[in-house]
Amino acid sequence: MTSEPGSDESEQGGSAGEAASPNPSIWERMRRGMADHNAKAPRTPMGMPEVVADDDTDDAGTDTPEGATAELVLERIHHYRDTIRSYQVLIESQRVGQIRDDRTERFVLRPGSYMLRLRLMWIFSPKVVVELPAGTETRMICGPNGGILQAWRLFLAPTTAIFLRFAEEE
């Protein structure tokens, strides 16, 4: 009994035969799909912009070590308005956390320039650009902008209803 060459090779190959098969099984298609999904999934924690390997010398003036970090410390004052609600912390328009009344939150980021904003329902703080040098701590203070006499801000000027400023500006 002699077999013709190539007549039974696709069944003997196991995984190699499946890869060469014109109609892969459902399990093989699912495995390939998950591999594609995992290849596209972000590798960095939420709120941390992805590191891009940069071989250019465009920013040769920056002497920031690759693993350098900077810390943003956000302190919320105690105020009777919004006491039971948390402000959402938005860095580069991405929600990275929240801050409750009379609390302090710390965010570890890569050195650089970031746009910071706070949000509560439809009201916002003004946008603040924050420069974070490597190895430093930048402190900011936030809270509701005014009490009951400033309640008009909630409806007429929702982007000024929350204040956000650097701690040195006190």
Topology:
Elements: H1 9-12, H2 15-20, H3 26-40, E1 70-76, E2 87-91, E3 94-99, E4 104-109, E5 112-120, E6 123-124, E7 128-132, E8 137-144, H4 153-156, E9 162-166
Parallel strand pairs: 1-8
Antiparallel strand pairs: 1-4, 2-3, 2-5, 5-6, 5-7, 8-9
Explain what the structure shows.
The structure is a single chain. The protein is 17% helix and 31% strand. The chain has four helices and nine strands. The strands form two sheets. Strands 2, 3, 5, 6 and 7 form a five-stranded antiparallel beta sheet that branches. Strands 4-1-8-9 form a four-stranded mixed beta sheet, with no helix packed on it. The N and C termini lie far apart (94 Å).
Which characteristics define this entry?
31% strand, four-stranded mixed β-sheet, alpha+beta, 17% helix, five-stranded antiparallel β-sheet, 170 residues
Global geometry: extended
Q: Care to count the β-strands? A: 9
User: What's the helix count?
Assistant: 4
Low-confidence stretches: 6-19, 51-61
Largest sheet, strands/sense/barrel: 5 strands, antiparallel
Q: Ends: how far apart? A: 94 Å
Structural class: alpha+beta
Proportion in helices? 10-25%
Strand content: 25-35%
The SSE string, one letter per element, is HHHEEEEEEEEHE
What is the radius of gyration computed over CA atoms, rounded to a whole number of angstroms?
27 Å
Mean pLDDT: 76
